[in-house]
Amino acid sequence: MIDSMDREYLQRAKLFANVGLESVEHLFEGCRRMKLERGDRLLQPGVANSHLYLIFDGELRVYLEDRSMPEQAVLGAGDCVGEMSLLDGQAASALVLAARDSELLAIPHDVLWSLVDCSHGVARNLLAIMAGRMRESNQSLVALQTRSLEFEQAASVDALTGIYNRHWLLDAFPRAIARCERDGAPLCLVMADIDLFKHFNERFGYLSGDALLRRMARRLADGLRAQDLFARYGGEEFLILLPHTSLDEALPIAGRLRELVAIGCGLPTGEGVTLSCGVAPMLGGESLEALIARADAALKRAKENGRDRVEVAV
Which residues, 6+ apart, have CB-to-CB distance to 259 below 8 Å? Predict the structure, then answer.
């Protein structure tokens, strides 16, 4: 028989919500009370489990692997744990620890099924508990995927300008080059650089320089096509990959970008801003590093020849 305190605990348990305990009271003779001290381990991943545990008092925490990971769930009085391994017949899949001194009722596997057989209410409550566990797991997976995407985006996007960074381009550009090579399609790379940017920073300060870089990125992005790949290479340099684009098609694009910057990147300082570009058509079997080096050499010639111009790699 269960005493009055046990009855009070059981009536608060989700497993017995709206269940008349009189109909199943005789089954509790096969259950046992147990106590856990703070830090005690109740379940461990990979270890067999043969009980459902009702929490009478205290707090348990569930971890998917170990305590170095955030807890998957925090369970208190009225909750139960261990039902997953009982229902699927597998070893426990999570680590369950006592977060503080706790008192439990251990219900053996056969007693749990006898409770289900005797009471439709217990069966419904057990299904509801399982559904809640699955919903929480799904929400955790969604949150994990969202965080993963956020981290991936943070690693790929330049914090100052909001466009892709060098880390991203070193992954994306080679794939675009490989596709053009497979298709036998032409491809060009444009390296663009703000003229006299160091002088601008020294004269107006780094905050104005940052503002200029942001404006530059927006103007360049506005002047590109949907298929073009655009990233900040470093400092005031930007790389633009033009897939399926011949040199004759790339030169007008680079010229248009230069003009867009000249008319649209000025700041309240009144200082004029110009852009120099080096354009390199891809050679057969050429690596990204070699393509960048040729575009960089063309850019240097544009600087040497007076800036605010476009030069082609040899």
Answer: none
Higher-pLDDT residue of 9, 114: 114
- Residue 277 CA neighbour count, 13 Å, CB half: 27
Tens digit of each residue's pLDDT (9 = 90 or more) over 252-290 = 999 999 998 877 655 555 567 899 999 999 998 899 999
Q: What is the pLDDT of residue 285?
A: 87
Query: Could you tell me if 264 and 220 are in contact, meaning their C-beta atoms sit under 8 angstroms apart?
Result: no
d(CA 155, CA 250): 29
> Which position has the token pair 């032409």?
186
Distance (Å, rounded) from C-alpha 60 to C-alpha 39? 9
CA neighbor of 229 nearest in space, from 244, 214, 215: 244
In the structure encoding, which two tokens stand for residue 6, read together? 């046990």
Token duo for residue 202 = 């020294």
Catalytic annotation, residues = 236
At 281 the three-state DSSP class reads: strand
In the chain, beta strands by DSSP E: 32-36, 41-43, 51-63, 73-76, 80-81, 95-108, 187-194, 229-234, 237-243, 275-281, 310-312
Which residues is 234 bridged to in the sheet?
237
Q: Taking each helix axis as running N to C, give the angle between helix 247-264 and helix 206-222, from 0 to 180 degrees, rounded to the nearest 10.
A: 140
CB neighbours of residue 245 within 10 Å: 24
φ/ψ (deg, to 5) at 283:
-95, 155
**Nearest residue to 134 (alpha-carbon basis) of 146, 142, 124, 122:** 142
Residues sharing a CB contact under 8 Å with residue 245, sequence separation 6 or more, in sequence order: 186, 187, 188, 253
Instruction: Please spell the DSSP secondary structure of 178-222, one letter per residue.
Output: HHHHHHT--EEEEEEEETTHHHHHHHH-HHHHHHHHHHHHHHHHH
Distance of alpha carbon 170 from alpha carbon 176, whole angstroms: 11
Nearest CA-CA partner of 108 in 55, 52, 34, 54 = 52
Q: Which residue has the higher pLDDT, 21 or 177?
A: 177
